[in-house]
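Obj: model holo form, ligand = iron/sulfur cluster.
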Amino acid sequence: MALLEVRDLSVRFVRKSEPTVSAVDGVSFDVHPGSTVGLVGESGCGKSVTSLAIMGLLPGRGTEVTGSVNLEGSELLRLSRREFDRRRGKDLGMVFQDPLTSLNPVVPIGLQISEVIERHRGLSRRDASREAAKLLERVGIPDPDRRLKEYSHQLSGGMRQRALIAMALACEPRLLIADEPTTALDVTIQAQILTLLKELVAETGTALIMITHDLGVVAGMCDEVNVLYAGRIVERAQRHELFSQPRHPYTAGLMASVPRLDSPRGQRLAPIEGSVADNIPWEGGCAFSPRCGNALAVCRERAPELETVEQGRLLRCHNPIGAAEMERAHD
Amino acid sequence: MTDSSRTITGAETSPVGTDPADTLVEIDDLRVHFPIKRGIVLDRTVGHVYAVDGVSLRVGRGETYGLVGESGCGKSTLGKAVLRLERPTGGSIRFDGTDMARMSGEPLRRMRRRMQMVFQDTLSSLDPRQSVESLLVEGMRAHGLDRDGKSTERELRELLSSVGLPASALRKYPHEFSGGQRQRIGIARALAVRPDLVVADEPVSALDVSVQAQVLNLLEDLQEEFGLTYLVIAHDLAVVRHVARRIGVMYLGGLVEESDSDVLYEQPLHPYTRALLSAVPVPEPEVEDQRERILLSGDLPSPAAPPTGCRFHTRCPWRQPTRCDSERPELRDVGGGHRVACHYAEEIRDGIITPNSVEGNSSAGVS
Ligand SMILES: Nc1ncnc2c1ncn2[C@@H]1O[C@H](COP(=O)(O)OP(=O)(O)OP(=O)(O)O)[C@@H](O)[C@H]1O
Ligand SMILES: Nc1ncnc2c1ncn2[C@@H]1O[C@H](COP(=O)(O)OP(=O)(O)OP(=O)(O)O)[C@@H](O)[C@H]1O
Ligand code: SF4
Ligand SMILES: [Mg+2]
Ligand SMILES: [Mg+2]
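Output (holo structure tokens):
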């Protein structure tokens, strides 16, 4: 059974004097214990809003959230703010891109972590503090006893991100959401943090939702990958299948756009044309159609549905890559 | 051909720049130190940030030189020093044979036309109330390139079409464009004064990958069209490897390795380069599953108090008990223009010494 079931999740920002923004538009996926699910896509496609909705962290005013987020049989979207806070501390952990904004600058990090442990695991202050030191050590912070007394600004970016991960782990969450956890870090530090996250998933059985715009990170981390475009999932597959044969023109376009470390110099990139500014609303057809090399007339008339096209693969496209070949193979 | 005898410093076998006429930029022992001031009136210097500390390199005419390294290693400072936007503390920079350090006034101003800079988001630093046309004309006017209205107008249209924008963009304002389009305008602005050298500092790092690829292709096309020389600065090694023929890797204010782009990828010799290469994710699960990461311990030391000896020794998995912590390795040619600043480059290359375990190292080098 899935640990988390997200069904038809939609988030709209309704502002007076501004057009309504449909940031997330009918997103559904499952997360199983011990597995890593990726959400990948370019800026503004709705990755962060999806994670904030799951965590109950969206602003209440002017935000319409519909659909269902079910964690082990209980519906999160119907919880009161208070109940959500309790639940969040106990079962859900989150790691953001910028740890500085999510750590309290005037409280030593040790105290921030041990307070969480005290509250959620009912330990004494002394025991909680000892647990906090263990956690810091676990996430690779050397000299944890000294670090416990330091403030977030005294730590480097990589150390801060580790402290934040330690805090997210403090109550042994069943589900961890990491939103661009390494985007602000140098690659050698990124390698440390990603290795740490992978070990945690393998050792504790925590489920992980990994949000990133970096296809390389996805290729190394995720079991299943959801590609988002303009608030909707356009393709979902297991990572090996997705990378060896991307079927959605957007997924394939992304892959052809990234310069690869292991490709010889001088190999020309094949970028997707235009930018997200060229999108059309899903109501009028496929949002990607103005940029899509595979677009047919129907793409400008009717939005494609998300359909299962083969075992383990979902696709939202009227004219996916390889469709003609596959039909021929079936004849 | 593995000659492990050490050549003394100096680049006698370097394939670039051996002919001075082919060298556009020649940097020799460049140092840029920023004073750290303390006190109420801010006049007491209590130390220095060694942002760039002894870098020598050459950029050949018409080539792309890529400078890569992690945050704070001094890439931007070096780029700015080349354009004299930052005054060097020591060393020299020769541009097309002329020593820039000794230039000032009108000759410096005239020289500056020939070198332009493209930033991460060039337009965000410009006046938002200026139309694209006036942004572009401004630079031309400053250098007396805007002679009569008609030909300027035609030139601007051609320029915009070179960077893939319609002529209608001239009447618009920066905020009316997407990030990728703004970067195209920034590039057009640099090219408007017909430079020889373009220093591009993180030209694509603020862009979505699809748009990033468009801009990278554009830079390539423009180089061909206008015979430009590029100094491309980026933290993303995959980007640098894609565009540059020659790559220099920086660590804490110094160059630690420099070679041809393919050689750097196929046979990195400096331990830091090896760690960097091993850390860059590759979008292919099979490759990712089989990769061995060289995990570095700890964080970057402060550039205000760089470690003694080899600046990388506090985090280096190959560190040896002698020389590493006491003697600063010079950048030396180990053959074919492949330059490395490591005492043990040959031993590492030939597998004579191997990395120490990361665990044993894990508390070393943490600031
Ligand atoms: N509080 C808000 N009010 C109004 N619009 C919002 C709000 N938060 C997000 N949006 C809009 O919702 C859309 C999705 O934003 P989201 O932050 O989820 O993107 P993302 O995929 O995380 O992008 P990035 O890669 O840049 O982080 C964007 O168009 C954004 O401008
Ligand atoms: N004007 C200045 N005054 C004092 N210190 C400076 C100044 N400019 C840069 N520095 C310091 O010099 C060092 C090198 O900075 P620089 O901006 O060149 O690094 P970088 O390699 O470009 O990093 P990034 O990848 O983050 O852009 C840093 O420690 C920085 O804080
Ligand atoms: S000189 Fe020593 S510390 Fe520096 S890179 Fe080489 S082996 Fe490592
Ligand atoms: Mg986001
Ligand atoms: Mg910089």
